[in-house]
Structure formats: structure tokens, C-alpha cells
Structures
1.
Amino acid sequence: MTLHGVPALVIHQVEEALDDDEKEMLLFLCRDVAADMTSPSIRDLLDILSERGKLSALGLAELLYRVRRFDLLKRLLRMDRVTVEAHLLKHPHLISDYRVLITEIGEDLDKSDIASLIFLMRDYTGRGRTAKNKSFLDLVVDLEKLNLLAPDQLDLLEKCLKNIHRMDLKTKIQKYKQSDQGAGTNYINAVQATLPNLSLKDPSYTLGLQNERNKEKRLVAEQLGIQSGSGNRSWDLLEWERGKLMKTSIQESGAFLPRHIPEERYKMQSKPLGICLIIDCIGNDTEVLRDTFTSMGFEVQCYLYLRVDSIMRVLRQVASMPQHRDYDSFVCVLVSRGSAQSVFGVDQAHSGFPLDQIRRMFMGDLCPSLLGKPKLFFIQNYVASEGQLEDSSLLEVDGPAVTNVDSKARQPGPYTLHREADFLWSLCTADVSLLERNPSAPSVYLQCLSQKLLQERKRPLLELHVELNNKVYDWNSTVSMKERYFVFLQHTLRKKLILSYT
């Protein structure tokens, strides 16, 4: 244990848990409080700050809060985000608001944005100074060393963000300048400054205006191919979605195609992001699921060992909650024994609650407060062996609802969404004998899901699901048929979905 501040074990655990991007962010955040350290590792940085009395448990909590590792806050420091926010409201910050601002901007830039910024900065840094493969934070450090960027010197960055059409981030800087933090801050580059008693700045306090972006990302042909290809396992592409892509006749002779189409993303700005309902009738995965979705910014509600009638009651109650109006998404995780088309809860002899009815409760006509917002379902169902033979029809139970809708739903107006829009339905089945052999074994599917979401939440969810499938496939290749997991995905998502504040 260190003589002051944070125990060495905690520092070691933090270093092991952070990914490379989070480590880079943490080192950048601490540049001013570690000005005399030359390229420290996370372990060295935290240990030296702790020994010098600059890093208390609350200071470490602030750092974990800034990199949004709320799971580590809870597991290592026994704190939650509300506690840290309350502390930041009343006490000076370890990290300057300038560095928080820069990291927030960096989190919201994609690779093409960063490449464009690096190119534009060549007029100021010199053509040979900035390598093309640098990160945004590396670029910022270079600019700081040249005295081209500082808390009271943001005009150049603001200008370049405008030039790459990131008006949302330009607006973020303008709001920072107008705040007390941006005006007249006494700051010496990379030197510890006396921090005033600042008001808490929300981690995504100016992440609005995302819809102002009009960046072009995907070829029209690629978009149509992806959407059409997903129809085999997913619901057939709905007509209102095809209309949005403005399907066009294209001659094989090489008629001109618009090179890109504007990319849209679901808004993820609410605090919390939404309700995450966890119903675990087996009891082996609740803790990791709760930590995962709490760290991602969801309000988690957990229910254990429910009977079928209780599952129905909880789902109805959650579907009717008024809070959905203020939130940007909804997640449901359900773990149960069941059959090919239903879940049993803890009622072994029950006929079960149909899976299609679960989804039905959250469709646009019955749950209008979630209309237009992503609704995500992750279901682990342990079924009898014969149920695996029916896997090709596992998710067809709701198929007729897509085509046999009433005329009003079938012909939505220009501002109307189909009731089945914006769903992601990820269903994993496994043989119930897995539980009989090892009643306490967690689900490989849910463990992989939690790992991907914790480590790579800033990537599109559909990409993560493909990699999740690969991990499950790797598992299946090493075990017997009775130990395998079978994952099926359906979705009617209309935009890119990233489960992180945007």
C-alpha cells in the first residue's frame, strides 16, 4: 500500500481494467497535475500522484468518472456516479474543465474527422511535424507545445472544427468560452494550477446539435446491400425504411451513383440513457449485467426468480412508465428456462409466456413514449434439446405482424413511424442441461455481451454483435453439442446505434 492516498492494489486493478483509449484519455486529463513526469504509465502516474498527496480516493473517483468507468467506481471505490457528481458540485476539481472539454470533443470525433483536422493543422504545425496516424489527443498535445492551443486560446481548434463541418463541437467550444471556466482561467500549460470552486460540468454538457452533422459515410450500394442482406435473419426490410433510402433504378452499364449518403445516429444524450430492465430467473448473470449497464449510463432495474405471471406484470409496468418520454432508449435483458417460442420463468410446468408478446408490449402503438427510440432485447433462453431443432422458426412467431398490419399502419405518412421500427432482438438459446450440470454457470453469450459493451461501447452496436457472434462461435468449436449456444438477431433499426453519450 502506498503511504498516502490510494492503495497500490486499487491502482493495479484500475490499470488492468482500462483499455488503451481510456488510458490515453486519463494520461491527457492528468497532464497538468503530472507536468514533471515524462511519459508515465497509468500505474506510475497514479502511484506517484498518490505518494505526493495529490490523489485521494475522491480524486481517483473523479478520474474514473471522467472516463465513464462507473463499474470501477462501484467495484473498487464503493461509490456511484451520483456521489461523485455531488462531490464535484461542492469541491475543487482535480482535472481542469479545459481538459474535460478536449476529451469530450475527442470522444465525438471519428477517424475521418481526426484525419481532416491533422491535415488542416499542417498549415500551423508544419507539414512534417504531425504524423497521419496520431490520435486527436496527440494532436492537441502537439498544439499545446507550440502554444497554439490553451484554455484561453481555442480559436484555431474552433476554426478547424468549423471547416470540417462539426458545428456541434464548435458550439461546444463557444459555450465553454461563455462560461466562467472558459473566461479568465489562470492556467499554465502542463503545470498544476489552483483550481477554483467550479460548478459541475456534465460529461456531455454540449453534446447536442448532433443532427447538424451532414457527414457522408456509406456508399448507397453498400447501404442497400447491408439492409437487404439482414432480411434473411431479421424482419423483412419494411417499406417505410426502403422509402427513406429512396430506392433508385441503377443501370448495370455504370450509371452514376452518389458516392455517399448522410449517416444518421440515434440520439444518446439523456441522463440516464434509458431504463435497463433485467429479469434473471436463473440468477447467474445479474451482477455483471447490472454493473455493465449502470456503467454505460442506464437506470437499471433488476428482478430475480420471477414466475410467469410476475414477468408479465413487470413488463407491463415498465412499458407504461412515463420516464420513457425523457429517455433516449430502452434495454431489456431476460434470462430464463423456456421453449422455442416462450419463457417459463421459475414455473417449470407452465406453458410459458410467448416471446413475441414481450416485444409486442413495447411497440409504438402500445408504448408511444418509446416511439422512434431504440428498444433493445437480449434474451438468454435455456430450452430442452428438441427445441434446438426448431431454431429456424424461433423468431418467426411475430412475422405476420410485419405484413398483416392494418391499412393505417401499412401506409405511414411522412412523419409516422411503423410500430415495429427501432427494435433490436438478440435471442440466444442453449440446452437446459447446461444448468443441470452446473447450476451456477453464467451464460457465455451474456458474458461476451457484457465484455463487448464495457470495453467497446463507443462502437456501433451491430458491429459489436457480429463480434459477439464470433466469440460464441469460437466457444462452440471447442465444446460438445449440448454445451453450445445459438444466437439469432433481428432488427429494424433505422440509424446507427452507439450506446454511449453522443
2.
Amino acid sequence: MRNSFLFTSESVSEGHPDKVSDQISDAIVDLFLSKDPEARVACETMTTTDRVILAGEVRGNGMIGTDGEWADGALEEIEKTARQVVKDIGYEQDGFHWDTLTFENHLHPQSAHIAQGVDAGEDKEEGAGDQGIMFGYASDETPDLMPATLQYSHQILKRMAADRHSGKAPFLEPDSKSQVTLRYVDGVPVEATALVVSTQHAPGYYKDSDNPALYEELRAYVMGVFQDVLPEGFITDNTKIHVNPTGRFEIGGPDGDAGLTGRKIIVDTYGGASPHGGGAFSGKDPTKVDRSAAYITRYLAKNIVAAGLAKRCAIQLSYAIGVAEPLSIHVDLHGTGADGVDEAKLEAVLPKLVKLTPHGIRTHLGLNKPIYRPSAAYGHFGRKADGDYFGWEKTDLVDALKAAI
């Protein structure tokens, strides 16, 4: 590893058009799982000017009957759920308003051909919902064992959203992005060299407005957030600060740019610090290994780092559709393994500690529950939900790992 280098990650807020789509898709997943823990959902959402469109395939008791028709009230529940997400985010603007937007639902029953390859039977265990490669990662850069650049990027926007919802920062609107560049020395982040926020705002809060004092109010607020989020001493006189560098940003969200489910997969995971599989997470029930296997690899990597077996860890799994067991497992400690810790031994031990089939993963992490909407903004990793860690963020495997290694 080089002695000194710069690294950058970005985040986007809950009001970013792609994140609006992710949250709606995951709210639909939660709706189905709340009625049937074995429901199957693959829900894609598109958002644009005053319009939300759903498409994909679904299956679940309480929503779709055995005749393949929608249950009474199911369509109304789906629409109500989507509108509630938009309302909770705070969109009541000309161009995108939870109450006036046009809603289209093009969800349909799951393909029988997919179901026959995935469902468990008398002579076979439930198979993976698709082929693919999945990665998990952990680093000791932060207490939550996440890359610092991404964690701070998320925290900046979460703080701004909380202030917007509480009324503390009434000049903020829902759509925003952040970016954090840190200097690393010997693999440890030591200072911020650049910080960026672009946020949608109330009329007038831009540099070249008739009242530039409003922009200075916005900039001073964002500077305060930077100071609160970044560790003491990280911001120096040499840190480059950019607040709304393009100027006026009053039209935002889906009215300013169309949003789609699954377009922010690097924001969702590790900010570019680790390889990424091809699949997105939101809108997919946990039988889809794009989601569940990415969660279990994060869980395993986090427990390895939490156990002190390495400072950094990346894990890859691969699957074939309809096949239960993973085709491969790969562990990379990036040269940070503790004395006597062998990557090959970890590759042999991990499948003995956790059953890495789709059903085994869901059971171990408790994934067959309506828990997913909170994960769809500000990252799926390094965070808690409803006062407790998501199952994949727990470090309850530490003792077993230490004993095995």
C-alpha cells in the first residue's frame, strides 16, 4: 500500500430521484413480506415529473391469489404505499407531489419458469434466484467498520435530512448529494482535502441571487454540518469546500431528473473501496442472492475485522440460478491479516459457521421480515434499523471465528 494517497466517496440523499425509486421498491417488498414471509418480489420503480411507475414480478399470499389475480384491496395498498414514501421524504412541490402524482402499476405474477428453478421441492433445496457474484467488505477505519469516505458522506446527508424534517433548516429541499475526499497515510484517514455538497434549496439561496446573504446562510449551515460530522482536525485551511458549485438548484428530485431503482449501487455498498457484484439490492425479496448474499458477505467480513483477524477484508461468493450452494468463496485480507490468519483457512471455515445457501442465509440473518425500506437510503451497511442492527451488521460470530482460527 502506498504511504499516502487520496480517496473519494459520494452519497445521495433520500430525496435523490434514484433513491426515491429505491425506497418505493423496498416499501413494496416490505408490504408483501408483511403479509407473507415467503413472498417473491422483483419490483422496479421509475420516477419522473409528477409520475411514479412500477414494473416487475411478484408472488405472495394476501396480495395475489392462487388464481393469479390480485387480492381485494391489493392494488390500492400498493398505490397507498408508494405515495406514502414520497410524502415521508417530503415531496410536496410543483412537479412532484405525493398527492397529485400519476401512479402506474405494471407488476404481474412471477414467471412459473423462474419459480420452478428456485423453489424448494421434495428432492431439492431452494436454489438461488439468479446467477451472479456478490461482494462484502469491512474496514477498521470507522467504529462501524466502514470506509470513512462513504460513512462521512452518508452522515452529512442524514444530518441535513434530519434538520430539514425538524424545521431547523427550512431552506433545504429533499434532493442533495455529498462527496468526501480524505488523505490516507499508512492506510489511515488523517484529513479531508475536499468536501462537496449540492443541495436543492428554497428560492433565492444561490450565489448569484439578488440576495447573496441567503447563499451565505446556506453555506454557513453546510460548513457547520461538515464540522459536526468530520473528526476534529480533519478540516483544515487547505480543505477545498464546494457548496452548490453549479449555482441555483431549486428544481430537483424526479422533476429535475428521472429516477430508477438500482442506479446507486456504489452509494449503497462501500463507496468504491471494494469490488461490487452486478446486482442492485432494492426491490428484491431475500431469495434473490443479489441481495441476501451481499448481506452475508458483509456480515462475514465485518465479523472477521471485528474479531481482530484483519484490518480490512473483502469476500466474494458466486451462485448459479436454481443451485443452492455457492459455486465459490474467496477471501482477501488485503495484506492486513493478523499473525497466523490464513485466507485459505478462512475460506474453509466460513461455510462451516454459516450455511451459505439462500435459505440458510435468510434464516441466519432473519431476512424474511419487512425490514428493507430503511436500508434504501444512506447505505445498506454500517447502520442500524429501528434501534437494533440489521442482522447483517451484527458481530455475533466473533467468538466462533476466533475459536475456529
3.
Amino acid sequence: MKIKEIVSALERFAPLPLQDGFDNAGLQIGLTDAEATGALLCLDVTEAILDEAIALGYNLVISHHPLIFKGYKSITGKDYVERCMLKAIKNDIMIYSAHTNLDNAQGGVNYKIAEKIGLKHLKVLEPKENSLMKLVTFVPIAQADIVRNALFAAGCGNIGNYDSCSYNLEGEGTFRAKEGTHPFCGVIGELHREGEVRIETILPAFKKSEVVRALLSVHPYEEPAFDLYPLQNEWAQAGSGIVGELEEPETEMEFLKRIKKTFEVECLRHNKLTGREIQTVALCGGAGAFLLPQAIRSGADVFITGEIKYHDYFGHEGDILMAEIGHYESEQYTKEIFYSIIRDLFPNFTLQLSKINTNPIKYL
């Protein structure tokens, strides 16, 4: 199996266009045409992680956090990132990272955290904006099903937990084929009227090229007419953070103790307890404190994330319980997402979750 097959599977689940502007998700080092000997799954890429891959005989490391964030003018081994780059290249190890694209994807990092906590009725806390488009095209009635199905297969028509969504209106189209054309119907030089279906459907903006190719490949007309409109709708299936419900309410202390145990937190930090019941939970893996206002607006009883700044704790005791569990601790189960994606598609491929704790923060 080639490495690019595994990369393709990861990017179908968490497309790179979902990543935030600051990020550098995707291929870090190596050539994807190489045959894969095995994949080591980890949160961070360190020298110890690469040594683990070498000892296993694996030539693919898949991480959540990208090894490379900034540009380099030289690679001399002066820090751990450069040493990792040199070691990976020397040992023909490819490094691939799925970071904020996996955070923002449906079923991604925050969904895994919600699963560990036992949340139901999940919603994205901060949906992506300006990420959707509407496609409108006009098709002869007899070919409408073929075109619709091709558009759905290319990624159109997904709204919430529904797929194959479209609006269809029958009408009449007119055209006159000029000399040198090869009309699907009608006669060159004569005005033709054709019963048509106006098909409207929705798509993620990053799938525009793929969808247009699919449309042109099956549309019967020599010159298909279609329109693309940008939408200002929120994309409820993609974005930052999650809010969900516990099956049964818990006291603040019961909930915090359970979180501490589930995520193996050595030091869980929180604001003042006020005796509220915990039922609605908002969360974001990693450095998610930027979502605190959204968590409060959602009506959540508690907001869980990996990092919260000192001053962010002030003034919210009456609004929400805040729980800071550590960046590594909040995202440690991301490896399980990688495992599921690859194992489901390639059941015989060699995979291993790294046994190394790469958390750079130690507790006394």
C-alpha cells in the first residue's frame, strides 16, 4: 500500500481546507508515492517518537500537532524540530499531520472528547462561516437523476444529518445551436425548447472544483449552464468546539473528579464552585479559551478545554464552571481517531498508537 492512499483517507475525513489560517496541517516530510511499511500514531513528533518508528520498522508517522509551523532558512539541528527533520529524512520516514482540520471536522477531536465524557445531542460550538456555496444548474428532465446523483457523490446536498438534499423545479429552457456545435437535442440553426429541471443544491466551498468536474462529466449538454452562489449561512457541521448534554446531571465535584480520572489529569484547574448542577457541557481540545464567550452564550454549565489564561478566570463564577485539564491531556485520544479512520478502510495495514507520552509539561 502506498502512503498516499492513507493520506487520501485522512483528508477525506478531515479535508485540509478546514484548517485555520495559522496552521500548517498536511504533509510535513517525505514522498507519498513510497510503499507504507506501517504507521505510528502520535500527538506530537519528537526525536523519541521517530526512534520508536525506526525500531518498529515503520516509515510513516501520523501526528496531530504539525512538526513544522514556521519557515526555515537552514536546517542544522539547532533545535528538536530541525533534528527531527534531519532524522526523518535520513531514515526515509514520512511525517503527516492533521491538526485544526481534524479539530474542525465532523467526528474529529472534539467529538472524541465528547465521546469520552458521554455527551449526547452534539452541536458545533462555533460553526464555520462563509464556507458554503449553492449550485444551480438546468438539466433535461430525463437526465436529472443522473446529474443529481453525480453531484451528491461529489459532495453536494449535505445539510445536518440529511444527505441528497436538493430543490427541483420543472420549466422550459430555450437555445439555438450555431454552426460547428453538436447539440444534445434540437437542430442547428433552429430555436429549440426543452423541458428542463432547475436543480439547486448546497456544497462546501472547497469542493467547488470537484463538483464542477462531476457536473460537466455527466451533464448531457455540450455547454451546460450553471451558477455558483456564495452563502453566508453558518456551516453547522464544521467548526470549533462542541456543546452537548449528559444523560444525567452531576454535581460539580462529581463531574470534575470524573473528568480528572477519564483524562488522567494530574492537576485539574477550575474556577470557584457555586453548587450548580452539570448537564450541558461545552468543550474544546487544546488551547480553546477563545471559545469561552460562545460556551457561555450556549447556556452550558461547564466549559472544558486544555489551556486557560489566568485573567480569563476572573468574573465568570456566576456564568459557567471553567475546567482546564491540560493541552496534552485534552487531545491525547486523537490517536484513536487516526486508528479508526485507517483501520476501517485498511484492516490489514500495520498500525500502532505510540507508547510515548510527549507531554512537555511535568507536575511536581
4.
Amino acid sequence: MKFTATSRSVQGSSASRRLRRAGRVPAIVYGGKSAPANIELDHNEIYHALNKEEFHASILDMDLDGKVEPVLVRAVQWHSYRPQVLHVDFQRVDASQAVSTKVPVHYLNADQSPAVKLAGQVVTHGPAELDITCLPANLPQFIEVDLSGMIGNSRVHLADITLPIGVKYVPHGEDVNPLLAQAAAPKGTGSDDDAAAPAAPAAE
């Protein structure tokens, strides 16, 4: 995906407010062998781009004053209640250096699984995103988790799926194998609820 940026020479909160009133968004791009650069963006263009899932998990082509370079979105500041982008951080990308970022997880075919169709259970999903590291060329826009094989009371962990080639999961602490999905009876209908209920007092 490609977007357009312009160099920004004036800095400070007052200058940023003037930019925003003019329909522009202050931003910064950093990393690589070049110094950090203050830039500005067209608000409408970047607003619609940021509302696309792939914009957050793709190597982007930033056209800065006619020169195109690859970048990643690193941080976005939104207005607290208006649909307004206040600031964006981008990081330059080196094709030979691994990047660490978050990618969306797409859960597929749960409604076709035996857990749902035969056992009448509900499949709940785990994290909406995973932290991964890979070379820029291997960066996936999302990771698919096929749940069609789930049976009653089963679970799917990260180790049960195959990540895209060249992609590694970045764990949080000791959680090296996070739970991605599990099947269970709907609340109020399963034996687990009965087991969790307190025992009735004995008759006197």
C-alpha cells in the first residue's frame, strides 16, 4: 500500500494545531540509517488508510517528497471522541533486517466444526493479534486459524497451527504457546456449570 507524505519544517504544539485545522496530520518517520524526519500527511487519505486492517500489518510505500521508501506504522494517536487522527509514527524498514510487529488473527470455519454442528458447543476465540518477527518480505497481512476440525471440548494452541514461512511468534513472558480457541457448552447448559454450583445443604 502506498501513501503520500510531505516534509515538515515547523514543529511544536502550535504548529501541529495549525496543521490539523488545515486538514493535515503531523507525523514522524524514524529508524534505518537516516535521522528521524518530521512529516505531514493529508488527513482524509491517512484516516481512510488507517481504517483498513492491512495498513497496520503491511510494509507500506511512503512517497516522501517524491522519494519512495518502505515503512511500518508504529503508533497512531486518535482524538478522544472525534474521528480525527492527531499523530502517526512510522518506522523505516530495511529488507535485510527482521521486523517485530503485530498481525491480525483470522479465525475461520468454526461454524463448520463438529464441536458446533454435532456437539452444539460454542467456539470462543483467543487473541485478535499476535506479536511476530520476520524479514519484511515474509510479513503476512494476517494469520489464519482454521477451526473446522475442532471437536467437543477441544482446544487449539499456537503449536497446533503452522505459521507462515519465516515467521516466528514473539512470546509474552513464559506464554510460549497461547490458547487460540476453545470449544465448550453454552453457559447454563453444560456439566461444567453443574459442577461449579454449590452443593445443596443436607436435610436436618
